[in-house]
Amino acid sequence: MAKFYGEKAPYLLRLRRNNEWLGTAARLAIVLIAGFAGGFLINRLPKELVAGGKFILFIAFFVIISGILYVLLKVIKHANIQAMHMQRRLSGEGVVAEELHRLPHDYVVCQDVRVPRRGGSFHFVIIGPTGMYGVMVKSQKGQYDRHSMTLVRNGQSYPGSNSITKAIDDADSLHNWLKVHGIDTYVGALLVFSDSEGTISQELCHTPGIHVVHRTELMEFLLTSNALLSADFTSAEIASIMQELHN
After folding, report:
1. Interhelix angle for 10-50 vs 55-100, to 10°?
2. CB distance 135 to 190 below 8 Å
3. Burial of 64 (0-12, 13-18, 19+ CB in 10 A)
4. Which run of H or E residues covers position 144?
5. Alpha-carbon span 182 to 186, nearest angstrom
6. Longest Cα pair distance anywhere in the chain, in angstroms?
7. Distance between CA atoms of 4 and 7, rounded to whole angstroms?
8. Which alpha helices (DSSP H) does the chain contain, by range?
9. Nearest to 207 by CA among 219, 191, 196, 220
10. What span, in angstroms and rounded, lies between the C-alpha atoms of 85 and 19?
11. Nearest to 165 by CA among 106, 113, 207
12. Which DSSP category does 160 fall into?
């Protein structure tokens, strides 16, 4: 079994938790505001109407409260969508991690790696006899293709359309960071599609400068790739240097 370093996507866990708290706070605010508004109207409105009071103020009060409740409902909807999105990404990275646990003992897997000052980030960095790879996981289902170096899903661009160029740039950033620390070895960019209903075109699979595979093909790729790790360094030596990227 491969040796793992780092924690499972702590930033995703944090974002999901924050959105869940935001949704809960908004629901609580709705209950409190609705209770206050309801009690106020029940106790005061009949008296003001009988006394010929300023009914227009109650209309304004009702409109303001309705507006606040509408905004809170939108906040809840947004928080729920974001929490679901974070959960889907966590699930996608989780199934890839399960695959990587099956790698032999001479492989090392670093989770949630961020390259300081250079802006690179990876869901996983895999180090083994067949090479070193910076992995970006795409967890949404759909039909994936590319237009030049732009990733498209179901024939359209989407927020993750820059994933190809980002993965290549991030792998280059990690390579340069390692060189500064005395390790000069190839770092391949690897894009992994994790959803069982996700499909990738042949054009996308043959994108220059990056390796693109589905989760079901990941193990075969990692075990048979010919981008061998530099003979000057072992997986353990590189992993030891990379511990700094988890701090």
Report:
1. 160
2. yes
3. exposed
4. strand 142-147
5. 13
6. 92
7. 9
8. 10-50, 55-100, 163-180, 202-205, 218-224, 235-242
9. 191
10. 10
11. 207
12. T
What pLDDT was estimated at residue 138?
87
Cβ atoms of residues 161 and 144 within 8 Å: no
Nearest to 15 by CA among 61, 68, 81, 69: 81
Give the closest residue to 187 by CA, choosing from 201, 158, 167. 167
Q: What is the pLDDT of residues 190-232, one digit of tens each?
A: 999 988 888 999 999 999 999 999 988 999 999 988 766 666 7
Residue 6's CB: how many other CB atoms inside 10 A?
Answer: 17
Alpha carbon distance 227, 107 (integer Å): 14
- Give the three-state DSSP class for 74: helix
Helix (H, G, I), strand (E, B) or coil at 184: coil
DSSP label at residue 197? T
What residues contact 168, with CB distance under 8 A and at least 6 apart? Answer: 189, 209, 210
CA torsion 49-51-54-58 (nearest 10°) is -40
Q: Return the bridge partners of 142, or none.
A: 198
- How long is the chain? 247
- What is the value of pTM for the model shown? 0.68
Is residue 153 helix, strand or coil?
strand
